[in-house]
Amino acid sequence: MNAPLPSSGAPGASFSVLGLAPVVPVVVVEDAADAVPLARALVAGGLPAIEVTLRTPAAPDAIRAIAAEVPGAVVGAGTLLTPDQVTDAVAAGARFLVSPGCTDTLLAAMRAADVPFLPGVSTASEAMTLLERGVREMKFFPARAAGGTAYLKSLAGPLPQVRFCPTGGIGPDTAPEYLALPNVGCVGGSWMLPEDAVAARDWDRVERLAREAAALR
After folding, report:
1. Measuring CA to CA, how many Å separate 2 from each of 30, 49, 75, 101, 212?
2. Any idea of its EC number (predicted)?
3. Residues labelled catalytic
């Protein structure tokens, strides 16, 4: 049986994605057959929260397979843009939801799904709008292009109650700088899934890189 997951500040959420591991792998699955061994390697390396992006036709089947076959994995769906995608992702087994930005319609759909979610923001006004709606955990995207650690440091003063998962342009060299900030719970990235390793199905390498990422905090 999986251990209880950390609780979340998001309304209706049963756990916090930000509390599972220092890094959330952002996964683009081209072949659904790779989903289970890839996820097993990530979990073995200490990264249980796995964001499968809805950027490929294989993504729903990948989420379904990971949810059914990888004990210890907390699989989520990313790059959510529409309410229909939210519904389909949860039906496939997604246990958390991530979007690059947020609209009122998308927020309503994610809240109705009754699983933890990280809506994307890149400005103080967007964060304040979500805070007014009771959301305190958000994705900061695109992190590097939107101002990186300097911008997040600036947000910590006026918005101390908001915590972020920065994603976008983050690698193993810069991740520790983000993780050192008080308003950062985890970071998202894909550096532990290099294209050549995935193409070669070198899951041992993926596990090793995941282990290194898990040790960043």
Report:
1. 28, 13, 13, 31, 23
2. 4.1.2.14, 4.1.3.42
3. 51, 139
Q: Report the C-alpha gap between 27 and 157 in whole angstroms.
A: 32
Q: Is the pLDDT of residue 8 over 80?
A: no
Tokens 């519904």 correspond to: 87
| DSSP symbol at 23 | E
Q: Is the Cβ–Cβ distance between 128 and 135 less than 8 Å?
A: no
pTM above 0.70, yes or no: yes
What span, in angstroms and rounded, lies between the C-alpha atoms of 71 and 14?
A: 18
Instruction: Name which of 201, 171, 173 is nearest 188 in CA terms.
Output: 171
Query: Whole-angstrom Cα distance, residue 92 to residue 81?
Result: 16
The whole-number pLDDT of residue 217 equals 80
Beta strands 120-121 and 137-140, pairing class? parallel
Residue 159 to residue 131: CA distance in whole angstroms: 9
Q: Tell me, what amino acid is at 32?
A: A
Residue by residue, DSSP assigns 43-63 as HHTT--EEEEETTSTTHHHHH
- Contact criterion met (CB below 8 Å) for 41 and 206: yes
DSSP-derived 3-state class of residue 134: coil
Note the pLDDT of residue 14. 74
Assigned token pair, 178 = 């983000």
